[in-house]
Amino acid sequence: MQYRRLGKSGPKVSAIGLGTGQFGAPGWGYGSVYGDAQITNVIRTALETGVSLIDTSETYGNGKSETILGSVLGEFRRDDYVVITKVAPWNLSFDRVLKAVDSSLKRLQLDYVDLYLVHYPNPFVRMRDTFRALERLVKEGKIRYIGVSNFNPMLLEHAQGCMSKNELVVDEIEYNALSRRSEKHTIPYCARNGIGVVAFSPLAGGLLTGRFSADLRPRDRARAFNFLNRKGYLLKAERLFQCLQNIATSRQVSMAQVALAYLLRLDCVVAIPAALTDSEARDNAKAPLMQLTREEILAIDGLSTPVGGPTYIFDHFIIRPISWAKESMKHMSGPTL
Question: Which of 37-44's residues contact partners 24+ apart within 8 Å by CB, and which partners?
């Protein structure tokens, strides 16, 4: 396993982590396709292969992801893993941040969280109040580092300006060979300013594993509205899929490993692919062992299908905010998750 430091001052972590957004989420098939026993084995396997970065959130499975992790992590030494969890957009007021972290720590069965991230910016809550609470949590020892998710350079600058004693360590963003918009502004900004990039959905929800195509798309609810899952888009991406598969065949590795190695060509990036089987966890962990050639990188670059601006804006700034706004209405007047 290869290890990288998150940002200028963050912890050293495995270049490949484990994303747990599917854990406890019925929309992904939890409770019907897979359950706790299978997920527990995946967590153990990942940690045993050298994966040290585990990513979760209070929103995943309505807290179930954290609970499942909490039942397993106690089997391992605390120094052997780094946990990222995130506070939901509807919990970003000062008092709710403080309550949310306590709830997460209880579910995770931990005394502290390594990295605590703002999951998504909320324009209806003063950012200064959010980061004042996060700095207080660092002082109290409940979290070690502060980060964000889904922030662009303008928001990153604002967030850093809201803190007096701490630095932003990471920005967790969607980044994969099918979705490369972050390469234009966000990743360069992070690289210049010593902010680590954690790539979520690095396999595009499984589309970059070779298991799916325009004629065989995922049918779970979680991916139904993702712009990457539309038939027309996947038809345009077929040449990229074939390129990744050709590289994988020539190197005798999986297509997923090639897709992950492509992201790891950037030194500031670590990736957190999901895994639902032991074999997937082992396969993902091998990705840092390979280094793509310049020719292979250029071939992938040339075939990556650009996502149209209107499509991206519709998905990220309409569909996704609507989904968490619905959750916000459920929780704003009640207890935190």
Answer: 38/276, 38/277, 39/68, 39/276, 40/68, 40/71, 40/72, 41/278, 42/18, 42/275, 42/276, 42/277, 42/278, 42/280, 42/281, 43/18, 43/68, 43/69, 43/72, 43/73, 44/72, 44/75
The domain locations on the chain are 3-331
User: Which of the residues 3, 30, 60, 112 is marked catalytic?
Assistant: 60
Active site residue 60: yes
Question: pLDDT tens digits, residue range 3-37?
Answer: 999 999 999 999 999 999 989 888 778 888 889 99
Over the stretch 49-92, which tens digit does the pLDDT of each residue have?
999 999 999 999 999 999 999 999 999 999 999 999 999 999 99
Fold of 3-331: TIM Barrel (3.20.20)
Among 216, 259, 253, 225, residue whose Cα is nearest residue 240: 259
Res 220: pLDDT: 56
Regions of the chain where pLDDT drops below 50:
332-337
* Global pTM value: 0.89
